[in-house]
């Protein structure tokens, strides 16, 4: 049976050569030699025409089986040959790392601070960034022409609200004090964390757009002692260590008495270093007891309530927390900065 012998030895040769082929190129050659259009198998099939009908059917079937087997073996070998695989997937290869996005330092800090304030019992609001001259200045005891307006110079909007209400971009979140007090009666324990705007020449510690945290607490017996202990607790939670504070007199028209609060320098623990200019203290925030004129604007019964307010630069806190040297980095869009968080 020459055809049967021929095809069996063809399969045997194919298998021997397949064993020896170790590269993509040798496999390609082997495929052409045996399975190609002018290859050995085709050549053998060409001889079928000389056989009888019965033999043709039998040998044809046999040839097809051999062809299928060759193709299968070839595919298997190809998949296990470096660079030759079509669908081969090596599960042991190290994967390609995916670049993930992450939160901006503002967002991280904001989430943390919100959590702390919330756990201390504050309601947290953000309020309107475009507000009236009244809420931003007048209601805070800063009448038109008062020199204190210079320190809070902002962007004025030509358009008016309700025909005659002059609009400004809020220069501090204190602008929400009276707006909130008009709608809520004491006891009040509120924080406004949001964006503020100032007509400011920018430098490493000043931006025209920044964030502030305004806090105010109003009830019948609120004192400076409550303010100091709450702020000490808040700052210690933010910086995750025991923080010391001290008060110095400070002028803000909407508080009386008014203070500047300093915090013990975290860098040198109060010993004196470059960060605190050798003083052991860093200036941090403005605070004080809410002025009676502010309560008057809120419509609160005169003399009934006392309260304190404080205002702290949220950017400043974030910079101290993450040791960021320049406020302008936050909105710079510089990926070298942002990738560090
Ligand atoms: N709003 C003040 C500022 O922007 C800070 C402050 C808030 C001071 C509340 C006293 C009380 O500088």
Please explain how this structure is put together.
This protein is α+β, with helices and mostly antiparallel strands. The chain folds into two domains: 78 residues; 234 residues, Bira Bifunctional Protein, Domain 2 (BirA Bifunctional Protein, domain 2, 2-Layer Sandwich), CATH 3.30.930. The chain is built from eleven helices and ten strands. The strands form two sheets. It has a seven-stranded mixed β-sheet with strand order 1-5-6-10-9-8-7, sandwiched between helices. The protein has a three-stranded antiparallel β-sheet with strand order 2-4-3. The longest helix has 27 residues. The two termini are 79 Å apart. The model has no long low-confidence stretch (mean pLDDT 92).
> How many angstroms separate the termini?
79 Å
Total count of helical runs of at least 4 residues: 11
Approximate helicity band: 25-40%
Q: How many structural domains does the protein architecture include? A: 2
Secondary-structure element series: HHHHHEEHEEHEEHEEEHEHH
**The CATH class of the largest domain:** Alpha Beta
CATH structural architecture of the largest domain: 2-Layer Sandwich
Q: Kindly report the average pLDDT value.
A: 92
CATH homologous superfamily classification of the largest domain: Bira Bifunctional Protein, Domain 2
Q: Quick one: overall form?
A: rod-shaped
The largest sheet has its strands arranged as 1-5-6-10-9-8-7
Low-confidence stretches: none
CATH topology assignment of the largest domain? BirA Bifunctional Protein, domain 2
Largest sheet: 7 strands, mixed
Radius of gyration: 40 Å
Number of DSSP E strands: 10
């Amino acid at each position: 049976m020459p055809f049967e012998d021929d095809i069996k030895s063809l399969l045997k040769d194919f298998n021997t050569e397949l064993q020896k082929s170790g590269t993509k190129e040798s496999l390609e050659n082997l495929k052409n030699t045996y399975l190609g259009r002018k290859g050995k198998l085709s050549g053998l099939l060409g001889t079928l025409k000389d056989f009888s009908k019965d033999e043709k059917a039998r040998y044809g079937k046999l040839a097809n089986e051999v062809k299928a087997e060759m193709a299968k073996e070839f595919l298997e070998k190809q998949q296990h040959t470096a660079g030759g695989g079509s669908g081969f997937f090596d599960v042991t290869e190290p994967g390609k790392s995916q670049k993930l996005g992450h939160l901006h330092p503002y967002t991280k800090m904001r989430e943390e601070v919100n959590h702390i304030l919330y756990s201390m019992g504050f309601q947290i609001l953000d309020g309107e960034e475009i507000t009236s001259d009244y809420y931003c200045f007048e209601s805070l005891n800063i009448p038109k022409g008062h020199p204190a307006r210079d320190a809070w110079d902002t962007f004025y909007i030509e358009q008016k609200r309700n025909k005659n209400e002059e609009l400004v971009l809020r220069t501090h979140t204190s602008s929400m004090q009276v707006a909130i007090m008009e709608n809520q009666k004491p006891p009040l324990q509120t924080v406004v964390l949001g964006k503020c705007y100032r007509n400011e020449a920018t430098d490493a510690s000043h931006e025209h757009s920044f964030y502030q945290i305004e806090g105010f607490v109003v009830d019948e017996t609120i004192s400076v002692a409550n303010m100091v202990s709450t702020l000490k607790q808040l700052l210690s939670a933010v910086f995750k260590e025991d923080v010391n504070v001290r008060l110095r007199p400070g002028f803000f028209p909407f508080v009386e008495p008014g203070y500047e609060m300093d915090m013990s320098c975290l860098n040198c623990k109060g010993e004196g270093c470059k960060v605190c200019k050798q003083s052991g203290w860093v200036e941090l925030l403005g605070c004080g007891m809410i002025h009676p004129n502010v309560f008057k604007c809120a419509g609160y019964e005169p003399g009934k309530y006392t309260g304190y307010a404080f205002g702290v630069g949220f950017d400043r806190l974030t910079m101290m927390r993450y040791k960021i040297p320049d406020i302008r980095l936050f909105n710079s869009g510089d990926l070298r900065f942002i990738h560090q968080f």
